[in-house]
Predict the 3D structure of the following.
Amino acid sequence: MFRTFPKLSLSDRAMALGTIGILSMFSVTCKSTDNNFWKSTFTSNNVNLFGDELSYNLIFVTLGIIDIWVGEMIKRVFVFCGEFRFINSRYDGRISFVVQQSFCTKSNIPFLTLPILVAMLTYMNLHGDGMLLVWMILQTKWNCIIIVTISMIAHLLRLTDPTKSEMSRVMEEQKLNVGHGLAWSYYFGYLRLIIPGLQSRMDSWKKGIDTTRKSVVVPKLYILIPKSCYCPPSITAADPQLKVAGVTPSFVANRAGNQRREYKNTVYCFEADKTDFYCLVEYATPILSLYEMSNSEEAGLSSFDRLQQMRTFVATLQEIINSNPETKDNCSLLVYDDKKFGDGEQSISMLIKDRIEKDLSDKAVTKTF
């Protein structure tokens, strides 16, 4: 049975339409002088046109290199246009990051072809009119069509995609799978252990709160994820309105040789609209590792890479949480720009309050006490 052709993404469809547009532009703007050009070139009596045999061979090598460069640049322009749509969600609103990810490479090897190209053109110019011939060929209609067509078709058919071994090497060198691995480790090593029985532990804890005041106890874990990935040791230091109300009853588990390892969660309280809100709040500890990696020369993680890995961590963890009914209704991720907090207008407690109200309205909280 034949496999169906993969559905093209939005960027691929835009690239395909752009290719058709460029080809149409070439067919209209380029005059039909190709036949006259080739006839005049190859029937010319100018023996100095090609120069010596080496110069003759360099003409085709030069044309190949230039065509590859131009085709690749056209493709990257389309990539840039596609990525520009996500400038706020992926690149923190900085166009320099979009340009870097669309046009720059991790290696300087591609740029080594430039001095080689200059050397070949210089040789052809000294030993004939090869450089002039290359320039004339580049302007022909069919050469322009070939450049665009081959480059775009190769991309749309995934002929330029790296193999699995190459992808593995790239992910290892550029640390592209750090956020993905941290998300799965956080789930299996922590969330999957504490979420079962969370509501019953909160139910046992709430018996000691002040019942004379209006209060809402939400048996749900709110996981804070600041964009900077910096997690201070104390949440109350980041927001004085959040106060420690106690800790849940602990439970023990045997994990990887650690006998009777104890797990418990801190309950925080804050007041809003003359109501005391109680809930479980903590930072996602794996992102602190990302912050420390970005400040370590050994890890080699740049601030931009840290931001990308944080987003990978959030996307992966959110997908894991949503796929499991037990975690879906018992924990929420709160991603926020911590640079905008602390000025009095925005605070972690208000962020949590807004999420609690949203969860209550969407019935995303199974019950409150």
Remarks:
- Residues 72 and 151 are 7 Å apart (CA to CA).
